[in-house]
Specification:
By secondary structure, the chain is an alpha+beta fold. Helices cover about 40% and strands about 25% of the residues. Bound molecules: zinc ion (2 copies).
Length: about 450
């Protein structure tokens, strides 16, 4: 990939911003003052959207909000978003969009053609998570369902995809009623199964860019408590991380716990392997590079006096640099095999990769181009340059199909609570938490205003 140098440049920028942040932490009085200023400027935010943008949003907001509540109360798990997709399809059809359902499973594609011009894609996810909602909201989800393994699980829109969908439909309404302000083809995509990584590739395999027009540009957003509602964050270049999941099976030779000399103990090999894996980030990767190697589970054995035949480890690896990613995956293989060999195992460990995805790379030129229209719609102070995040997301699949994109952050935090948490040095509940509850009114209004501004600029 020719983006390696851009990635490096990006990381240097991120580093200096981080250093400034750290410096700020050592000056509590200044920090307090800054917090007061933040509170002051944030409370004024609701009126920050410029007149024309906010008037347009108000015409579609009641319906968008009603849809948000309906979606929030009826969340569905990944790849099972049938009611969700049907709701979206019905709304978009009534707005005049040509809607195709069941694209790559439960995915939907809605097209609005408006003369000649570019094709621009706006994407939302459809799925919710197996989380029990504890927000105490009057419209909190009480839904339970069976997961794919047959277990009864609670379901919650704990990642905010309900807000993304409501925003997309609100945006769709504004665009449909203002066709004199843009031309080209608007393509709205409702993607299933983002949380399990697979929905985006499923839609592409089902002809997303062959049965439908291939977009010249792509746009998506994600709500989170890392920014106050009313603001959006642009991250040019690297936006998040590569994610690799690994399952490692270590083979030993089982036997009696009282006769270890007749066995090859896979638990001891697993223990040594786990510790040795920790040296990859600390001893092998160049300091300063993002390198996360987490062993999330260890499974072995049934009884205290039995040495089992095998042990299994589950890993997640997060990186931002393709070379570092390759280096880490190679080191995991080398260390795992060598530890087994050192213990005299007669069979090589099995290393399997699953649920992997590449990082989302925001086209820097596009990010630069879209800043001005976003500032015009939201107010200059409400568009900030944000640092890359450590999560992952399969929107990267669309970018790899050759679609330059902007994936931006939408502030979801109650501005007052955000400022208080900053002052106290605490964090508000993150996405996937049972307490995750975006400050809907400002966040949803901002999402619609931002999407409309971006689409109009790209569909000139
Ligand atoms: Zn999520
Ligand atoms: Zn999400």
């Amino acid at each position: 990939m020719g983006v390696a140098s851009k990635i490096q440049e990006q990381q240097n920028l991120g580093g200096s911003a981080f250093a400034r942040l750290m410096l700020a932490r050592y000056h509590p009085p200044i920090m307090k003052m800054a917090t007061l200023l933040v509170v002051f400027s944030l409370t004024a935010f609701a009126f920050a959207q410029t007149g024309a943008a906010s008037k347009e949003v108000e015409t579609v907001y009641p319906q968008a909000h009603e849809l948000y509540v309906a979606l929030h109360q009826n969340p569905e798990l990944s790849a099972h978003e049938t009611q969700t997709a049907a709701k979206l399809a019905a709304r978009l059809r009534s707005l005049g969009y040509e809607v195709t359902e069941h694209v790559g499973g439960t995915g939907i594609v809605a097209i609005l053609k408006n003369g000649s011009g570019p094709t621009v894609m706006l994407r939302t996810e459809l799925d919710a998570l197996p989380v029990e909602e504890k927000t105490g909201l009057p419209y909190a989800s009480k839904v339970h369902t069976k997961d794919d393994a047959g277990n009864d699980v609670p379901v919650m829109h704990a990642c905010g995809h309900d807000l993304h969908m409501a925003s997309l439909v609100g945006t769709a309404a504004v665009m449909a009623q203002s066709k004199n302000s843009w031309h080209g083809t608007l393509m709205l995509v409702g993607q299933p199964a983002e949380e399990t990584i697979g929905g985006a590739s499923g839609m592409v395999k089902d002809g997303l860019f062959t049965r439908f027009p291939k977009p010249d540009f792509g746009v998506a957003l994600h709500v989170g408590n890392n920014l106050p509602a009313g603001q959006i964050g642009i991250t040019p270049g690297v936006y998040n991380t590569n994610a690799d999941s690994l399952r490692i099976t270590i083979y030993g030779k089982g036997g009696h716990g009282a006769s270890p000399h007749t066995t090859i103990d896979p638990i001891v090999i697993a223990a040594r392997t786990i510790l040795a894996l920790q040296t990859i980030a600390s001893r092998e990767v160049k300091p300063g590079e993002l390198a996360i190697v987490t062993v999330g589970y260890v499974r072995a054995g049934t009884k205290n006096n039995i040495i089992p035949d095998q042990a299994e480890l589950g890993l997640t690896v997060r990186t931002r640099n393709e070379a570092v990613r390759k280096q880490i995956l190679a080191a995991i293989t080398r260390i795992t095999k060598a530890e087994a060999q050192a213990a005299g195992a007669t069979r090589e460990p099995l290393i399997e990769q699953f649920e992997g995805t590449n990082l989302v790379f925001n086209d820097p030129a596009l990010a630069g181009r879209l800043r001005a229209p976003l500032e015009a719609a939201l107010g200059k102070d409400n568009v900030i340059t944000a640092e890359p995040i450590t999560a992952s997301e399969d929107y990267s699949v669309f970018i790899e199909q050759g679609i330059p994109s902007l994936y931006f952050s939408l502030g979801g935090a109650d501005p007052k609570k955000y400022a208080e948490a900053k002052a106290e040095g605490t964090n508000l509940p993150s996405n996937h938490s049972p307490f995750f509850a975006p400050d809907v009114d400002p966040a949803l209004r901002t999402g619609i205003a931002a999407e409309v501004a971006v689409l109009r600029n790209l569909l000139r």
